[in-house]
Every structure is written in structure tokens, then in C-alpha cells.
Amino acid sequence: MGGSNVRTTSNRRTAHTRVHSNGRYDTTTERPQFTRRTALRLIVLALAAGCGESKHKFESIDVSGADWGQDFHLRDPQGRARTLADFRGKAVLVFFGFTQCPDVCPTALARAAEVKRLLGDDAARLQVIFVTIDPERDPPSVLNDYTHAFDPSFLGLWGDASATQAAARDFKVYYRKVPTGASYTMDHSTISYAFDPSGRLRLAIQHSQSAASVAADLRALLHEVTT
Question: Is residue 14 part of a domain?
Fold first, then answer.
């Protein structure tokens, strides 16, 4: 369901790590091998896209000019159709996850809340979007309560199985169900994406980045002078 990316199986709260026979790391909080692979892949995509629109030296991976992650067609908790055009004039931070995620998703949203605080006067020009990859267990009311627990301005978006798959594919996001006895968890990507106020995909933000570095990158996008 979707493209390859940094991924984590979010079904344990402890940072237990196993190393498989093929050398692959498996941990709930960090997967260094996947992180390096994803960073390299995104850097190659960025070079192919001809990045370099800003003079700011981004801590995030600059993917300016990418021909993917251009838009989404999802719904908000009130059932209204939403696309990137709705947020024109703001920097948009997008993360794919699910509300029962025990570690990566709340960490990403907590960082986003801190980023907003660090932006100070620019905070009103940031829109954080959380796209559920588990619409089966994330109805609109649950999604709304979850995002608002981090910040009242954060917006949860959802779609049916087909719309979710399409959005994930367009953003090169990996996800899949992982059975856990009578239930399941979700294995998924950990990259966040940032759009500039013109609605262009600009940055791929790794899960390990600090709130301060993300805030600095977003501030640069908000204050870019385009010609």
C-alpha cells in the first residue's frame, strides 16, 4: 500500500531492537538503516528535481521541484473535502499516522506543537495536518479529538481505503496492517512533509530532527522572497 520510506511498527512502547538475519533493524522508535536509506533516496530525488530555491541551508531534506506529493483529496472531521489549495498562504506540515500509534505519531505531533510555539508570531501561518492511514479505527470524531489534544489548530484528514491508498502513494508513504492476535497495528513511514505558502512541496523532515531545526526551516519557507 504505497511507496517505500522510513517505517516503524508502532505496537510497543519500549525501544526494543532486534536485528534480523538480513541485517535489518527492527525497533519501535528508531531504525537507523531505514533512516539512512530513506535519506539517500530522498536526496537523489531532490537532486533530480533540481532543488535549491532558497538560500537557507535546510536541516531537512530539500525536495523542491519534486513531481510527487503535489496534492491530496481527503476529508476533514466535519466531512468537508480538503485539498492543499485550502491552505494557500501558509506553510503546511503533513504527517501520515494513526491514532492508536503508541510512539512515533504522538512524538511527531508533539514536535509539531513545539515547532508552532517556536515560530512565535509566524505560528498563525502554519497548518499541521495529520492524515490517518487507519480510517477503519479512526472515525472523524476520534481523529478530531486526537489532533486537538496536541493543538486546537491541528487538522486530521481521512479518506476511504481507496483515497487513503492514493494519498499515501502520491506522497511515497509506506504503510501496512500488522496482525497482533485478535487485532492489528500499523507499520508505517515516519517522514513529515513541508509545503511552502505557495503550496509547493519543499521539505522531507526526518523523525530524528529537533523541533528547533524544523522551526528554523519552516521560518525560512515563510520568509522566502520569490522572484
Answer: yes
Closest CA to 173 of 77, 108, 76: 108
The runs of H, that is alpha helices, within 131-203 are 140-148, 161-170
Q: What is the tally of structural domains in the chain?
A: 1
Query: Residue 1's pLDDT is what?
Result: 52
Q: Please give the Cα distance from 9 to 30 (Å, whole number).
A: 10
Domain enclosing residue 33, as ranges: 7-222
Q: Taking the model in full, what pTM does it have?
A: 0.78
Cell numbers 541551508 correspond to 57
Give the integer Cα–Cα distance in Å for 94 and 19.
30
Q: How far apart are CA 192 and CA 178, in angstroms?
A: 22
CB 15 within 8 A of CB 27: yes
Residue 2 within any structural domain of the chain: no
Alpha helices in the chain (DSSP H): 32-49, 104-119, 140-148, 161-170, 211-222
CATH number reported for the structural domain that contains residue 217 in this entry: 3.40.30.10
Instruction: Retrieve residue 154's grid coordinates.
Output: 491541528
Tell me if 1 is assigned to some domain: no
188: left (phi over 0), alpha (psi -120 to 50) or beta: beta
Closest by alpha carbon to 124, among 84, 90, 83? 90
Residue 125 grid cell: 501561518
For 15-73, write each residue's pLDDT tens digit: 332 333 333 323 333 333 334 454 455 555 544 444 445 578 899 999 999 999 999 99
Tens-place pLDDT, residues 200-210: 999 999 999 99
